[in-house]
């Protein structure tokens, strides 16, 4: 009879940084809501500092994992499914940077430079892994492959405040072209090769993120919500959100795991896009869409925060993944 596995930091998944993405993304959504509506700006500020605090805790915990269990980190970074989640580390920093722009510029700038440099490194690492892993098969493809792409698209959100604009254009160009390149690969996996495992089902929400973040970055780089690209990206984000809602029944049946945080940042990004489009005169419909999406994102973050805190307290989330 074998002993049951014990909770250990060795089993802390790199995807845990999606928690920061969700909280930071929600902060950015409330920051934009405070501009469009009479909403207290303190909501976004509290969430931004909370995201920074969680980021610090997770970085410390992952550093302990790397020091004590380097083989576990190496295996995770080379894993055909989990390697895409390594990008959540720099994205967490970049999103927190964007959330802190209206509240504390110096901290935002420090996070942005660290996040952008790490994002470039991780993007190259992930692309190299995908292109050289002879064991990679179609079953290893899942919507989380978009995470490194989204990371590049996130860079301009605060990048236009902290660095020459050409840097933001570099990341935007890489992000949008790789999104379009990966899109048929991921759709083929979803449409042709059967459903993804239940634990990864929440990653379907990530489909909302690339067009939503690309639309926000496009406007940050000087585009308009009313120009053709802005309208197209906003429409695709809205369609992907509706398609996600159509999967709600199946998604509710998925067991709780940290990938459930995949719901939060895409919803928050969509809320930012809709609220910003409404504020810039794109019509009342986007105001309603932004309000509903913001409420959903807020509800998910609160519910998942409670469930995740309980999971870490009991050690449930520090056990080997099935």
From TrEMBL:
Sequence intervals crossing the membrane: 12-30, 42-64, 84-103, 109-127, 139-158, 170-192, 204-223, 229-248, 260-279, 285-306
Signal peptide from the UniProt entry: none
Keyword annotations from UniProtKB, A to Z: Membrane, Transmembrane, Transmembrane helix
Protein localization: Membrane
InterPro entries associated with the record: SLAC1/Mae1/Ssu1/TehA, Tellurite_res_ion_channel, Voltage-dep_anion_channel_sf
Topology within the bilayer: Multi-pass membrane protein
Source species, domain of life: Bacteria
Gene source species: Demequina muriae
Pfam family for this entry, one: SLAC1
KW Protease (keyword) present: no
Tagged with keyword Cell cycle: no
Name assigned to this protein: SLAC1 anion channel family protein
CDD domains (alphabetical): TDT_SLAC1_like
Main location: membrane
């Amino acid at each position: 009879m074998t002993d049951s596995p014990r909770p250990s930091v060795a089993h802390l998944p790199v995807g845990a940084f999606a928690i920061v993405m969700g909280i930071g993304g929600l902060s950015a959504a409330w920051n934009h809501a405070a501009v469009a509506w009479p909403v207290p700006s303190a909501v976004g500020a509290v969430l931004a500092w909370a995201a920074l605090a969680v980021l610090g805790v997770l970085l410390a915990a992952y550093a302990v994992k790397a020091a004590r269990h380097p083989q576990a980190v190496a295996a995770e970074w080379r894993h055909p499914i989990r390697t895409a989640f390594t990008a959540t580390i720099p994205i967490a920093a970049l999103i927190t940077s964007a959330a802190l722009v209206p509240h504390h510029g110096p901290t935002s700038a420090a996070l942005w430079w660290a996040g952008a440099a790490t994002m470039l490194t991780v993007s190259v690492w992930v692309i190299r892994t995908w292109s050289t892993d002879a064991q990679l098969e179609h079953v290893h493809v899942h919507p989380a492959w978009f995470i490194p792409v989204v990371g590049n698209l996130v860079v301009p959100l605060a990048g236009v405040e902290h660095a020459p604009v050409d840097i933001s254009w570099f990341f935007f160009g890489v992000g949008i072209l790789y999104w379009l390149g990966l899109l048929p690969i991921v759709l083929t996996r979803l449409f042709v090769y059967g459903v993804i495992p239940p634990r990864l089902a929440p990653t379907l929400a990530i489909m909302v993120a690339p067009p939503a973040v690309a639309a926000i970055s496009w406007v940050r780089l000087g585009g308009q919500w009313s120009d053709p690209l802005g309208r197209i990206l906003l429409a695709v984000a809205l369609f992907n959100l509706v398609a996600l809602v159509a999967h709600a029944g199946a998604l509710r049946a998925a067991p709780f795991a940290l990938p459930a945080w995949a719901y939060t940042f895409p919803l928050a990004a969509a809320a930012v896009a809709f609220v910003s489009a409404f504020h810039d005169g794109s019509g009342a419909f986007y105001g309603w869409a932004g309000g509903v999406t913001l409420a959903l994102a807020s509800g998910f973050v609160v519910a998942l925060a409670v469930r995740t805190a309980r999971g870490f307290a009991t050690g449930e989330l520090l056990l080997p993944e099935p």
